[in-house]
Amino acid sequence: MNKNDFIYQIKDDELIQIRENRVLYLIPNKTYKANDPEEQVRMSFYLELIKKYKYPKERIDLEVIVPRRKPEDKADIVVYEDDEKKKPYLVVECKKDGITDAEFKQAIEQVFGNANSLRAKYACVVAGNTRTIFDVAGFKPSEREKNVISDIPVKYGKAPKYKYVKGNAKFDLQIVFKEDLIRTLEKCHDTVWQGGRLAPTTAFDEVSKLLFCKLKDEKEGTKNGEYYKFQIGTSETAKEVFERINSIYQKAKKEDEEVFKEDIRLEPEIVYSVVEHLQSLALNKIDLDTKGMAFETFMKEFFMGKMGQFFTPREIVQFCVKMLNPENDDLVLDPACGSGGFLLNAMDFIRELTEKDYGKEEGWRIWHDFAKNNIYGIEINDQIARVCKMNMIIHDDGHTNIISTDALKNFKDIQEIKKDFKKEHFDIVLTNPPFGATIKDTEKNYLPQYELGSKKTKRKNQKTEIMFIERCIDFVKPGTGKIGIVLPDGILTNSSLQYVRNFIMERCQILAIVSLPQFAFTHYGAGVKSSLVFLRRKSDNEKLEKYPIFMAIAEHIGYDATGRKDRINDLDTIYEEYKKFVKEQ
Fold this sequence. Notes:
By secondary structure, the protein is of the alpha/beta class. The chain has three domains: 3-131, no CATH class; 178-278; 313-584, Rossmann fold (3-Layer(aba) Sandwich), CATH 3.40.50.150. It has 17 helices and 21 strands. It has an eight-stranded mixed beta sheet, sandwiched between helices. Strands 4-5-6-7-8-9 form a six-stranded mixed beta sheet. Strands 1-2-3 form a three-stranded antiparallel beta sheet, covered by helices on one side. Helix 4 (178-193) packs parallel to helix 8 and helix 5 (200-221) crosses helix 6. The two termini are 44 Å apart. The relative contact order is 0.06.
């Protein structure tokens, strides 16, 4: 569901009518532009005031002129205590979702000016899912912390100590639109990043820690009928909020040492702001596809923008997973997993398959077992490995077997980190290895370990993508193990690399080769012309006669050179043709 669906749903509400991009508030009979982002926030909050907080519609006015203020400083919403609208009770300032922390603070000063001039008891700033409510009448005009309250009083009542209650129909956490979730994640990152005070990777790390706390609280930390711990209570200071969130984190860190080893490294005020952004969201209840796509979109923009990391497009990842057709008892590995795209799509593939075959409940158990026990990843960058783990947790787990090390190391060294990363152990390897880097004979002493290095032929250096071919073959089971790998076309065509092709054919049956267009990775930070190569490792003494190889060229892959969606995706047709090809063999 998206924002347009929301507007469509309320267009025939008894309180609001939307016609031709105009919204009419039947009471107080005022009309505004419905497609204005601030108006959409006001529409939603206006309905909440009446339906959730039980304020009479006759006592609510919009665009109220404020005495002793500039003519343009009108109050967006005013709730009155009396039918004559003489006694202002609550003043609301509505801002579009996604504004900066500085803009939000400016809106707070604006609403205080309006509330003080109108002599209202309460003031509220709402910007999408982020909202702050103040007790104006009971404190000095300059107070901005001790007078924060958890929520608007219901029907002129008393402000509650906390707002969000697990299992409460009216005051449980809310499931939001994908766009809202993306904006909330961006707001959290911008708050933590502080305009460049922290390194982008560090900021992402810290946001991940707080998301981790949020999910822990939703899943395990709060029982039905209890107040959630991940929220801001009435009159709570930033220090008090930080201490409660940190206690969630420290407990979770002890239980799951694989995800985070360091403490939260943020000032209480920053944590307080992030809690403001996140506290209303039901992260755990948002469906996996929406949540996954939102986190992926946020992560993709972050990786490509602030971190400059390479990102494998979803269309290519999904195609590779379908081509290798994993089953729920397969062990799946990506030895260059990055943020976890191949592994997550393998997990989603099994989820859809098992829920279809076994039903929701039994399917849930099967794919959770698969996520916990059958998905493995190696990522050389420790921070990216943590991003991958967080991505898994957001998708409802699968982070157990993600390690940070160099996948080209000696097997013994890798197994010292986690013993399951064994030679000839995995059923499926899916990967997009790093291209272009050169390993010299003097570095790390890798080359003598590899036939494609200097084990048999004297070589002073070798490309990482060539080394990864041998490593992937070594990782899968002889006879049955399958590999899906992105390779630069040079490996398939350059005469000087015939020895690499010979090695692949000696060790593997080539199942399929799918040529990708030149632009396939351009928008994602790499411009090397590439193909997708699918292999089955032969058993040790297996000899193959001449056999057919499925080959295809994809010109359209679901997006164009700029990254915009293309309604044509040749990969779908190629997959169907491959299925027919396999049946005929």
